[in-house]
């Protein structure tokens, strides 16, 4: 798959799905599968750069997957191209008509367009599926509108998943995603205290745009150097150690005994265990973690 960042491309004879795709959940997967079934066409996922998006609209808006995480997820789907299109002033001010003409037709060369029922596009979000259908003859594409997938009696949506993440309902989040919610990044140095109590932890500083579940302890499976380690993860600020720690994601991996600083890790969260608490000392944290570990191993 070729990854294109920006607006400098010209494709032809494509099957394209367009959307924000935050979280790449099971509903999104249906759109992508429709693209994948388009024999004879170049298969494209067109999405918007989520980092500028959060700056343009609402600085507090966090994403389920960062650009990088989303790119890694899409990598193995079997698509030909993934386009991460800038969501800047120009894009925001592009009318629905210009979006169809300049982007869907001229740049993407779409012969087939796959979107969800509530897809909106163009300035003021005035473009919708009816409008896409109306213009399909003029611009020579076939429109495929996919109904929203329902799970547990409700439509799957990025908004619903974000709310569940905020509540810490990781199990339901993972069901709706059809995979595990994860936090990934490079392993950095912490305070070098963990190993002093027999609990070495890998520390990851989450991307500032990343939506995190409530501070607390979670059972996890971490992908590191081609292996998966069951472990236990603390998301939070380590109040026992000091008052002003930055938010971190740290994981004690069961069965690892190596220096892995600077390596890339993907921490897949499996289930919530308990909230983060302030203890009297690091030894007291360790005592509690020994109890948490029993739970984490049972999951
Ligand atoms: C599973 C787990 C649970 C933790 N729970 C807490 C907690 O409830 N409160 C807290 O202050 N720190 C908690 N910590 C953070 C420890 O205090 C931290 O691992 C220790 O400060 C070592 O950090 P370092 O990696 O910077 O050396 C937890 C760490 C782990 C791995
Ligand atoms: N089982 C393990 N789980 C996590 N980290 C481990 C493990 N075994 C060895 N390590 C190494 O030890 C480091 C963590 O030690 P620690 O004392 O917590 O230091 P830091 O505060 O820098 O994270 C990790 O970054 C990793 O390189």
UniProtKB/TrEMBL annotation:
EC number of this enzyme: 2.7.1.26, 2.7.7.2
Catalytic activity reported: FMN + ATP + H(+) = FAD + diphosphate; riboflavin + ATP = FMN + ADP + H(+)
A GO biological-process term: FMN biosynthetic process
GO terms, molecular function: ATP binding; FMN adenylyltransferase activity; riboflavin kinase activity
UniProt domain Riboflavin kinase: residue ranges: 176-299
Family annotation (Pfam families): FAD_syn, Flavokinase
InterPro entries xrefs: Cyt_trans-like, FAD_synthase, Riboflavin_kinase, Riboflavin_kinase_bac, Riboflavin_kinase_bac/euk, Riboflavin_kinase_dom_sf, Rossmann-like_a/b/a_fold
Domain of life per record: Bacteria
Family: Belongs to the ribF family.
Name this protein carries in UniProt: Riboflavin biosynthesis protein
Organism of origin: Catonella morbi ATCC 51271
């Amino acid at each position: 798959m070729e990854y294109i960042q920006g607006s400098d491309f010209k494709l032809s004879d494509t099957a394209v799905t367009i959307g924000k795709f935050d979280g790449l959940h099971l509903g999104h997967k249906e759109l992508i599968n429709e693209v994948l079934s388009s024999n004879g066409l170049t298969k494209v996922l067109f999405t918007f750069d989520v980092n500028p998006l959060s700056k343009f609209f609402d600085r507090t808006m966090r994403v389920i997957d960062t650009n990088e995480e989303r790119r890694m997820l899409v990598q193995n789907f079997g698509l030909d191209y993934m386009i991460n299109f800038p969501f800047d002033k120009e894009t925001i001010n592009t009318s629905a008509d210009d979006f169809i003409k300049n982007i869907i037709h001229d740049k993407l060369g779409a012969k087939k367009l796959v979107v969800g029922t509530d897809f909106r596009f163009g300035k003021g979000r005035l473009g919708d599926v009816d409008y896409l259908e109306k213009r399909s003859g003029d611009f020579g594409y076939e429109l495929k509108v996919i109904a929203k997938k329902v799970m547990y009696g409700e439509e799957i949506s990025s908004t619903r998943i974000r709310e569940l993440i905020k509540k810490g309902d990781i199990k339901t989040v993972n069901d709706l995603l059809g995979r595990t919610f994860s936090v990934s990044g490079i392993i950095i140095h912490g305070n070098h205290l963990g190993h002093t109590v027999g609990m070495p932890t890998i520390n990851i500083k989450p991307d500032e745009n990343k939506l995190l579940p409530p501070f607390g302890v979670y059972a996890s499976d971490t992908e590191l150097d081609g292996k998966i380690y069951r472990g236990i993860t603390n998301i939070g600020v380590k109040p026992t150690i000091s008052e002003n720690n930055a938010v971190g994601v740290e994981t004690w991996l069961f069965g690892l005994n190596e220096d892995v600083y600077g390596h890339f890790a993907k921490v897949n969260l499996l289930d919530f265990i308990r909230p983060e608490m302030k203890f009297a000392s690091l030894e007291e944290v360790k005592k509690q973690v020994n109890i948490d570990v029993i739970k984490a191993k049972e999951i």
